[in-house]
């Protein structure tokens, strides 16, 4: 029997294996490889907090329901996951060791507390006393505390054992990386030009005895690192109807802090008696993962590895491009009035969108601004402009998605500040996450209100716009802008019916529209006409859409899928999916844009969207896809897609082998899509600029 659906949890791990490949890729600069180790580690944390925790909850539920078959199926999957994770640990440790060895050739050396010169010991004693000690708050293990509830899941801890004669006292010390730097650069020795680095973990171990001296008696003292991962799910109580959603979310986030741990990762050299004590303190069951690893935990901090060493150790700077059509006109409104506009971050400057909001904030003809927020920077110029708009008498409405995973706290704080500033803040629809990326500005022109809309595939976040590839589409097309306004109306008045003839809206018409577009290709194939779909999304796990794609393959529709993350469809299987090709690109920037190109018998239909092809995005979120009608912008999107489809440097093949093989170049010069797209857009904008002169 042919397997039709690959488990999404294993597919997610396959994706993170591709991240680890980037750390292993010697064509990447060394410091960037270190940072990919940090990204891999951060991803693994999220996997256990979300995917594995959900699998664990399901398994315990099946056990309670005495559903033996599904319980056994999940247990089998859990074993596969644990096996894969242990393989990752070995690969990770080996990769880290190789990178360290190569860094030493560039005079960058990691040292631990046992490798310090006498001069560095003296310097470090003073550094610890002046910079670190104030943040050290040991947690003493006793019957007086609930130890698991005192340990947070995003931090590294040292598990300390103090032995005095026949008695043992245990303690835990948080490594305070939020208050001080994880990487301590030691003064360079006068004898050489080596930059030595010691991790904060080792700094604490070096000064361990001084922390407890005078307060505890001990003959010996030792410490080993550990980190836990908690279930990231939380529940909104319906008991207190008087509580606002903001208050409920604040309460529910506390559940995450005290949720059951699903994994503990420990220093593999931790003595067995300490391991037993630690796992006993957490009360682990057979469904939990107690995994040994290297000495250091929380490698996610390596994302912020210091910028040291020569230029060859880092990615070269990429100067974001001006969109010359924006630059040609005095105001953004003139530019958008001239024609539809498209930005492609991070190649284009996010500055253009910030100008869209900034100019609207004081333009006397602008009457209102509406915006959706899913994730936003902690320091946001965009929100600052909205504050200015209120001060200038504009009506400002912002929908804040409080349930954006891991951004809830930031969004709650912004919601409070915006409310206090006089902005009308909405919190969406209780049963649906608002994941659409919309902005709408109403402007009075010639006695009439004209709507300017921006529809994007990514968030209004100044920080992530530098590293996420996303499209942002600007238009004053009356029909599209009116429908964008109706999305905001739907969010506020979800009980009212709204009709959408252009936009693809989840959960209203997204599935029906996608089925219609796919069925159109199927009909062309059956009629003997060319039929093809080029789809770029982050995840493909919706079984109804996968079944549609399998049928497309059966009738001869050629399907090219670019999928960064999870893909539970199995391509290239004879009789099932031989006409489906799937590749995944991982490179310097995070591929985040969603694009759909339908051949339509030579009259191509092009869409960009905020939605992945997951059931939650189609049915349980407010998502928006927009058709691109402008021929110039269609051509631009198709050109970018072609670069990505033909990538032979950073693209991996997704097939039934799940080995993440690189696409091999059939040309003398391989195509690295992200680099080639930048050069193409640079020349494209240069030609535009010359045409404007």
Could you describe the 3D structure shown?
- The chain is α/β, with parallel strands linked by helices and 693 residues long.
- Helices cover 40% and strands 21% of the residues.
- The protein is built from 19 helices and 26 strands.
- Strands 14, 18, 19, 20, 21, 23, 24, 25 and 26 form a nine-stranded mixed β-sheet that branches.
- Helix 2 (30-64) packs antiparallel against helix 3 (68-104) and helix 7 runs antiparallel to helix 13 (408-421).
- The relative contact order is 0.09.
- The model is unreliable at 234-243 and 248-258 (pLDDT under 50).
**Unreliable residue stretches:** 234-243, 248-258
Structural class: alpha/beta
Mean pLDDT: 90
- By DSSP (H or I, 4+ residues per run), the number of helices equals 19
Tell me roughly what share of residues is in helical segments. 25-40%
- Number of separate strands: 26
> Which percent range describes the beta-strand content?
15-25%
Spatial separation of the terminal alpha carbons = 65 Å
Rg for CA atoms: 27 Å
Choose one word for the global shape.
globular
Q: What's the main sheet like?
A: 9 strands, mixed
SSE layout:
Layout: H1 8-24, H2 30-64, H3 68-104, E1 108-110, H4 118-132, E2 139-140, E3 157-164, E4 167-174, E5 183-185, E6 195-199, H5 200-206, H6 208-212, E7 220-230, H7 245-257, E8 261-267, H8 272-282, E9 289-293, H9 324-328, H10 332-338, E10 341-345, H11 351-362, E11 366-373, H12 381-391, E12 395-400, H13 408-421, E13 424-426, E14 433-434, E15 437-445, E16 448-456, E17 468-475, H14 478-492, E18 504-506, H15 510-526, E19 532-537, H16 543-555, E20 558-563, E21 580-585, E22 590-591, E23 594-598, E24 605-609, H17 615-619, E25 621-627, H18 631-645, E26 651-653, H19 673-692
């Amino acid at each position: 029997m042919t397997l039709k659906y690959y488990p999404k949890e294993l597919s997610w791990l396959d994706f993170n294996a591709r991240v680890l490949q980037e750390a292993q890729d010697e064509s990447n600069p060394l410091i960037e490889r270190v940072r990919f180790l940090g990204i891999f580690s951060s991803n693994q944390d999220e996997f256990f907090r979300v995917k594995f925790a959900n699998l664990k909850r399901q398994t315990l539920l099946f056990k309670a329901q005495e559903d033996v078959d599904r319980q056994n199926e999940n247990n089998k999957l859990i074993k596969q996951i644990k096996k894969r994770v242990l393989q990752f640990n070995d690969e990770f440790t080996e990769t880290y060791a190789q990178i360290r060895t190569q860094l030493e050739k560039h005079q960058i050396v990691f040292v631990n507390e046992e490798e310090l010169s006498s001069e560095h010991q003296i310097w470090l004693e003073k550094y610890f006393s002046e910079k670190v000690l104030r943040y050290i708050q040991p947690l003493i293990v006793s019957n007086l505390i609930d130890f698991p509830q005192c340990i947070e899941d995003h931090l590294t801890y040292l598990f300390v054992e103090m032995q005095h004669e026949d008695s043992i006292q245990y303690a835990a010390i948080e490594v305070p990386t939020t208050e001080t730097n994880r990487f301590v650069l030691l003064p360079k020795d006068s004898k050489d030009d080596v930059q030595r680095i010691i991790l904060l973990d080792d700094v604490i171990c070096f000064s361990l005895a001084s922390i407890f001296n005078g307060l505890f008696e001990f003959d010996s003292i030792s410490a080993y690192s550990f980190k836990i991962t908690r279930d990231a799910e939380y529940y909104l109580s319906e008991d207190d109807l008087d509580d606002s959603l903001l208050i409920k979310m604040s309460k529910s986030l506390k559940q995450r802090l005290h949720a059951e741990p699903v994994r503990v990762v420990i220093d593999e050299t931790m003595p067995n008696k300490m391991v037993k004590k630690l796992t006993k303190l957490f009360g682990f069951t057979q469904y939990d993962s107690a995994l040994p690893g290297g000495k250091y935990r929380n490698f996610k901090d390596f994302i912020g590895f210091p910028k040291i060493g020569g230029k060859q150790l880092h990615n070269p700077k990429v100067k974001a491009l001006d969109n010359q059509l924006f630059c040609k006109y005095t105001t953004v409104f003139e530019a958008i009035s001239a024609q539809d506009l498209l930005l492609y971050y991070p190649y284009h400057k996010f500055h253009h969108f910030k100008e869209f909001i900034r100019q609207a904030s004081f333009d006397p003809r602008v009457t209102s601004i509406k915006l959706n927020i899913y994730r936003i920077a902690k320091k946001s110029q965009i929100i600052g402009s909205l504050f200015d708009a209120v001060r200038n008498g504009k009506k400002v409405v912002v929908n804040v998605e409080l349930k954006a995973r891991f951004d809830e706290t930031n969004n709650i704080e912004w919601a409070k500040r915006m409310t206090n500033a006089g902005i009308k803040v909405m919190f969406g629809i209780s049963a649906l996450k608002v994941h659409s990326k919309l902005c709408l500005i109403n402007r009075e022109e010639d006695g009439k209100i004209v709507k300017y809309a921006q529809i994007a595939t990514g968030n209004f976040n100044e920080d992530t716009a530098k590293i996420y590839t996303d499209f942002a589409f600007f238009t004053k097309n009356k029909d599209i802008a009116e429908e964008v306004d109706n999305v905001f109306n739907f969010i506020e008045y979800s009980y009212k019916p709204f009709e959408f003839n252009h936009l693809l809206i989840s959960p209203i018409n997204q599935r029906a529209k996608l089925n219609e577009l796919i069925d159109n290709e199927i009909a062309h194939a059956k009629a003997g006409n060319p039929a093809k779909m080029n789809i770029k999304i982050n995840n493909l796990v919706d079984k109804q859409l996968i079944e549609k794609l399998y049928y497309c393959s059966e009738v001869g529709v050629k399907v090219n899928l670019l999928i960064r993350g999870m893909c539970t469809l199995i391509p290239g299987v004879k009789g099932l999916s031989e006409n489906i090709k799937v590749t995944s690109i991982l490179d310097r920037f995070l591929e985040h844009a969603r694009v759909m190109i339908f051949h339509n018998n030579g009259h191509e239909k092009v869409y960009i969207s905020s939605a992945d092809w997951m059931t939650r995005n189609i049915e349980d979120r407010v998502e928006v896809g927009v058709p691109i009608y402008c021929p110039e912008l269609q051509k631009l999107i198709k050109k970018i897609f072609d670069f990505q489809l033909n990538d032979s440097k950073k693209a991996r093949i997704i097939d039934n082998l799940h080995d993440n093989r690189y696409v091999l170049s059939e040309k003398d010069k391989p195509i690295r899509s992200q680099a080639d797209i930048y050069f193409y857009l640079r020349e494209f904008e240069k030609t535009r600029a010359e045409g404007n002169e």
